[in-house]
Amino acid sequence: MVPAWLWLLCISVPQALPEAQPAELSVEIPENYGGNFPLYLTKLLLPREGAEGQVMLSGDSGKAAQGPFAMDPDSGFLLVTRALDREEQAEYQLQVTLETQDRRVLWGPQPVLVRVKDENDQASGHQAIATVEVSIIESTWVPLEPIHLAENLKVLYPHHIAQVHWSGVDVHYRLESHPLGPFDVDAEGNLYVTRELDTEAQAEYMLQVWAQNSRGEDYAAPLELHVLVMDENDNVPVCPPRGPAVSIPELSPPGTEVTRLSAEDADAPGSPNSHIVYQLLSPESEDGVEGRAFQVDPTSGSVTLGALPLQAGQNILLLVLAMDLAGAEGGFSSTCEVEVEVTDINDHAPEFTTSQIGPISLPEDVEPGTLVAMLTATDADLEPAFRLMDFAIERGDMDGTFELDWEPDSGHVGLRLCKNLSYEAAPSHKVVVVVRSVAELVGPGPGPGATATVTVLVERVMPPPKLDQERYEASVPISAPAGSLLLTIQPSDPISRSLRFSLVNDSEGWLCIEKVSGEVHTTQSLQGAQPGDTYTVLVEAQDTDEPRLSTSVPLVIHFLKAPPAPALTPAPVPSRYLCTPRQDHGVIVSGPSKDSDLASGHGPYSFALGPNPTVQRDWRLQTLNGSHAYLTLALHWVEPREHIIPVVVSHNAQMWQLLVRVIVCRCNVEGQCMRKVGRMKGMPTKLSAVGILVGTLVAIGIFLILIFTHWTLSRKKDLNQPADSVPLKATV
């Protein structure tokens, strides 16, 4: 075992600078060490940048170390893995370096000399031999001081330790040992010890020596010799075996006892050789951090928590040095190992990963049981039992519209709908969900629990529109003209909702429907239709305010045989006028119900323009009700003149033709028709006026030509007359 003074020596060796060559370290280890392995020999003070390199251990001349030595790169300890024999090798020369992966030396080499110490050196070389000359005084022995003998004395046995002498002749000696021990006496009174003594077996003996004559009679009372076996420090402290990990709860206060070490020393109880003290080797205190995580009492071996807090889940191996001789130089030591496991406590409250969710829109007709949102919570504790969570709706659900659904061992909770929503009752909801730990929280300020708010918006749901019938049917003769009214589609509740109608799947293009009124008319003649056939289209009705709300019903048209064509009796209609270019005016056309000669009953009537293509191009006829229609210009410009428009009126199987006389004229700004005026008597016509104007212009031209010709000829005559022919002026 390594003596305690050797530990002090190794610790006192200064750490050399990385640039300087470290001084050689010397370490001694007893041969045939019987303690625990690995045995920590000495700690090398590696530089802080050691984390960047690799600790290398080599033998002489840089060769790899093949012996039972190793380096702990985390703690920097040099250790031996098995017992050594001095006879096999007395010393080992090692080198320790810190190198990078490319073999570049960062620190070292540090030479270390390991000497194997002979186990005989552990025993005392001094002998305690008492030579006793005993004389008789009044027939009694002279009292003697105790004889001190060293244990495990390495001498030849039997070994002489004392001599007694009884004055007289023919004296024989007899020896008794209490308890029985390895002692003997010869005829001359020499006392011997016949073998090594051991304090663990017996620390003291009481010897009695009798002096007898030849007849075996005692001369006097026996001589008592007190033999004390002196204890030698030849036993290494034995650490208790490493047991299971010691569990320490997280956040345990400083001073909490982790364990109590009790190393045993086989040397004499109560002697300095068996006085064991303890020293904490690892973990060491960190630089810049006050306090240590563990402390050890040197005397009692009690390992307690320090001021540095521990984290749950840590597994720490404590190395405690047990030294005899109270840690003095020359003693032995052993390294005790204690594994500490920091157990988790419920000191973390669960938290939601998101505190705000939504807004989430839900239609008010959504089915109960629908998943509204999924919330997730986490717990930083390690123990599964401490991660169990309990969820609850804290506020925002007074009427129990929502409920929570989760697995006991899951951090996910679903917010589900358990009642029908109502936009009128509550257009929105803010549901606050709280999460708490199932187990009771410990530690400072556990808090009330984390919350998450789920915002739900309720969408108002309008029922789809409903018509007064689920299926419509109408019959029409195949000879029905374009514009014939077939039927009217009406909503079941025309007051509360307004609808817009349209036709779907009108492949032949025979029908049309008024978007607002729902009246279905024929758009053209039913060419190709046969009596007895049916024609099915879909009538789609959309809500005017909510176009996405719609409904559709089938409309079945039954084609009938055309009735005999009745004689169309044209009915004259009083003349009316319309303006061109087109203005917002029209002509109201009345049905023939007021004329008993043209009709046998009252409306409703169907109105349509006559089959003349020009009429259908220039004019437009719109039904106002069952008895009137509205006639307007279809084109922006129609030739100003009097137009006669044929309008076909049908009622049941009867048909009439109305001749509507319309005067198209230009209008002034007030919308009044400007009519063409006839020629007045005595007024010239256009042709005569033009002739007079042209004749006048011609006469003026001839007159101008004559004047210009006369002036030209007169000027020419004056230029041709001689100068002397000019008459002289008379002198007065």
UniProtKB/TrEMBL annotation:
InterPro entries named in the record? Cadherin, Cadherin-like_dom, Cadherin-like_sf, Cadherin_CS
Show the stretches that span the lipid bilayer: 687-708
Superkingdom of the organism of origin? Eukaryota
Q: Which CDD domains match?
A: Cadherin_repeat (cd11304)
Q: Per UniProt, which keywords does this protein have?
A: Calcium, Cell adhesion, Glycoprotein, Membrane, Repeat, Signal, Transmembrane, Transmembrane helix
> Where is this gene product found?
Membrane
What is the official name of this protein in its record? Cadherin 16
Q: Which gene encodes it?
A: CDH16
